[in-house]
Amino acid sequence: MKSLRATLVVALITISAVLILLASGASAQSGAGAQGSAQKSFDTLKTLAGSWEGPVTVTPAMPEMDKPVPVHISLRVTSRGNALVHEMQAAGTPDDPSHYDHPVTMFYLDSDHLYLTHYCDAGNRPRMVAKTSPDGKTVEFDFVDLAGGNENGHMYLALFTLVDANHHLEDWTFMMPGDKPMHAHFDLQKTK
Questions:
Q1: What is the distance of C-alpha 103 from the center of its chain?
Q2: How many domains does one find in the chain?
Q3: Which helix (H) or strand (E) is 159 found in, with range?
Q4: Which residues touch 37 (CB under 8 Å, ≥6 apart)?
Q5: Residue 174 belongs to some domain of the structure
Q6: What CATH number has the domain bearing residue 64?
Q7: Tens-of-pLDDT digits for all 192 residues of the chain?
Q8: Are the CB atoms for 88 and 103 separated by under 8 Å?
């Protein structure tokens, strides 16, 4: 009887240990899958490093932007590959952020998510989290939270679509005061 009881105890301990290992392995795999997706999205965005130019169109239309306005985008990998810097300005304007719009966006991994923080000319810092399309060519960032004031509106969504190595699209949605969305579409060609 004692040996049967001992055998059952050992069997229960073994089954418990196996179940714990299986559960922790499944948990690690699900985390690795999410982290893998975030890492893949980040690696995809890092391929955009370089200088880009192209027209931007705005919806709803604005009288001062009755035709597409050329924009210059600079993307560079920094911090030993741990961050991607995105800088935007109207093409042909001096590099003087104290007098001209010059928003900066930082992309970075945090745990199993890819985030961006947009340092906006509106004086705030919206943070967004990425989700990737199944084909891996589109990375969409959805609003998470906002630091700083909202009296001038804030950036709300960002969508990056890779067409090929020398062509990508960016779609940014800005929430105007009163939560009125304004959409900007950038059609960008690589210049270097």
A1: 15
A2: 1
A3: strand 154-164
A4: 132
A5: yes
A6: 2.40.128.20
A7: 554 444 333 333 333 333 233 333 433 444 444 458 899 999 999 999 999 999 999 999 877 666 778 999 999 999 999 999 999 998 887 676 666 678 999 999 998 999 999 999 999 999 999 998 888 899 999 999 999 999 999 999 999 999 999 999 999 999 999 889 999 999 999 998
A8: yes
Whether 14 is covered by a domain: the verdict is no
Q: Which amino acid is at 82?
A: N
Find where tokens 């042909």 sit.
92
Q: Which residues contact 60 (CB under 8 A, 6 or more apart)?
A: 182
Whole-number Cα distances in Å, 186 to 33, 84, 90, 99, 165? 31, 19, 12, 22, 16
Question: Would residue 25 count as lying in a domain?
Answer: no
Contact 172, 146 (CB under 8 A): no
DSSP string across 42-93: HHHHHTT-EEEEEEEEEES--GGGSSPEEEEEEEEEEGGGTEEEEEEEETTS
* 148, part of any domain: yes
Q: Which domain holds residue 154?
A: 42-190
- The b-or-e profile of 77-93 (16+ CB within 10 A means b, else e) is beeeeeebebbbbeeee
What is each CA distance from 7 to 1, 2, 10, 13, 169, in whole angstroms?
10, 8, 5, 10, 65
